[in-house]
Specification:
alpha/beta; 2 domains; 20 helices; about 45% helix; globular; binds iron/sulfur cluster
Length: about 500
């Protein structure tokens, strides 16, 4: 059997980093880990080919070559997924669709030949044997959750690694918390399941053996969901890194209670984690309480962010506007918090009711759902009726973005963050880093309208924290993405999409 693994296009959102990637000479942030893990579960006698639309075009001859296409997508990739299914149908190619998009919404993608829900590990064998026998059903549903200790390393050799800025690696699935708006716990459960230390080290070894150096994104939704297990893994990872000459810098996502644990912070710092995304959501405790985000109610958020930063990890923050408890003062509160916390990269989005979440169920009962979510909370498209006047909410959202992504404000936060940042291991520079530096100096330092703020930022970093100059250039490049996207959103904010 010849299988074409198809990954739909990711639209231009905050998370795409589309306007930063050209500085690095890369086309996309990460290869599709889920699809490459599915590939590793397929029989060894099947031929595989990956086409990731984010880095390459799908050609007619790819479609003609294959016997079946496997497609996986997140909600935000829905439009591109539909187009791909249609193209496969036109070419007479059978389609198998899965991933978070079908797991979240049972009724989606009926036009595909086969729709798979749930974690692939629990169902793929049956799908494969039915396809081989020519009797595959329309719908498959995995029973239960996957045993992570049996998940194989992804087939990364299928991806053109040099087209990506970072490599993905998964350690665990699931999160012990219970945030009302979160779909992770619905998809993966509240009991974190993890790979063994041996499995994880084997995957790092695989990346190392393939010649990858630089950034690795540990994609777990909450890396610190099971702290005792992590404290077994991290010392071994630290040792592996030292023996291999520290080839990678690591980035992950974690809940704020990471900051309560000095030992864990030190272990992560030592293992070369230098960036962590934390869902802060709002400075308003009543909103956390109502959303069931109790770990944020307990924490002193500003102090927690500072503690993580002092352990050499840049904090990227997730923020939400549109909670029922939000009043028009929320916009200034968010801006002030983001500034005081010194979080340059702040992903501020509108609250979205994702399918099959507690929030979706509550809002449905209250008759407040307007439409399915597109999975992009920066789209300025409300999918439920907020308590606040929607026009006020959207205007306030626009003001928050305009304020935090004005180049001067952004560079000031970046400067403040660099001055608090604890010791970071010296980054291992690769050729593309030098290229990125040259491109940044030319595009941002000469041609950008914000070049004065850019040079002031680099100059101050050179004088005050020269050890962080490389990171300062990275932050400036990321800033370019946010400045560009924010300007575009400001000019094209679709008021017509506000439905009352
Ligand atoms: S901490 Fe994060 S991953 Fe866990 S339930 Fe809350 S939003 Fe979801």
């Amino acid at each position: 059997m010849k299988v074409l693994l198809l990954y739909p296009e990711i639209p231009d959102t905050f998370w795409s980093f589309r306007h930063a990637l050209p500085f690095l000479g890369r086309r996309s942030a990460y290869p599709p880990l889920g699809l490459l893990t599915v590939s590793a579960l397929l029989p060894s006698h099947w031929n595989r080919k990956l086409v990731d639309l984010n880095v390459e075009k799908l050609r007619h001859k790819d479609l003609a070559w294959a016997d079946v296409a496997f497609l996986s997508a997140m909600l935000v990739q829905g439009p591109s997924l539909s187009q791909l299914i249609a193209r496969c149908r036109e070419a007479g190619l059978r389609t198998v669709v899965g991933g978070p998009i079908t797991s979240a919404d049972a009724s989606s993608y009926e036009e595909a030949d086969h729709v798979v829900r749930g974690e692939a590990e629990g169902i793929i064998e049956e799908v494969v044997s039915d396809l081989e026998a020519g009797k595959a059903r329309h719908r498959y549903e995995a029973a239960g959750r996957a045993d992570m200790t049996r998940v194989p390393p992804p087939d990364l050799h299928l991806a053109r690694l040099r087209r990506y800025s970072s490599m993905p690696l998964q350690y665990s699935r699931g999160c012990p918390f219970s945030c009302e708006f979160c779909d992770v716990i619905e998809l993966f459960g509240r009991t974190p399941r993890a790979k063994t230390a041996e499995q994880v080290l084997r995957e790092f070894e695989q990346l190392y053996g393939m010649g990858w150096r630089g950034s690795v994104f540990v994609v777990d939704d909450n890396f610190v969901g099971n702290k005792p297990a992590l404290k077994v893994l991290l010392p071994r990872l630290d040792e592996w890194m030292r023996v291999h000459g520290n080839p990678f810098s690591l980035f992950t996502q974690a809940s704020i209670n990471l900051a309560e644990d000095d030992e864990l912070l030190s272990l992560m710092q030592s293992a070369r984690f230098n960036r962590v995304f934390v869902g802060i959501e709002t400075p308003v405790k009543e909103s956390h309480r109502a959303a069931g985000k109790l770990q944020n109610v307990k924490a002193d958020l500003l102090e927690s962010v500072r503690r993580i930063q002092e352990h050499g990890m840049e904090v990227m923050g997730g923020f939400i506007l549109g909670f029922d408890q939000d009043t028009p003062e929320i916009f200034e509160k968010q801006i002030a918090f983001i500034k005081e916390a010194a979080i340059p990269v702040s992903m501020v989005g509108l609250l979205t009711a994702l399918p099959n979440t507690r929030l979706w169920r509550r809002l449905s009962e209250e008759g407040r759902i307007l439409r399915q979510s597109m999975g992009d909370n920066t789209a300025a498209l409300l999918n439920f009726i907020p308590r606040m006047n929607p026009e006020v909410l959207l205007a306030g959202y626009r003001n928050v973005l305009a304020s935090i992504y004005s180049p001067t404000e952004y560079f000031e936060r970046a400067q403040a963050m660099l001055s608090r940042l604890g010791a970071m291991p010296k980054p291992r520079l690769v050729f593309s880093d030098y290229l990125a530096l040259c491109r940044s100096l030319i595009r941002q330092g000469i041609f950008a309208r914000y070049r004065v703020a850019y040079w002031r930022f680099l100059g101050k970093t050179f004088l005050r924290t020269p050890g962080h100059l490389g990171l300062a250039v990275t932050l400036a490049i990321m800033g370019h993405h946010f400045f560009t996207l924010t300007r575009r959103m400001e000019s094209g904010f679709p008021q017509r999409d506000v439905v009352f």
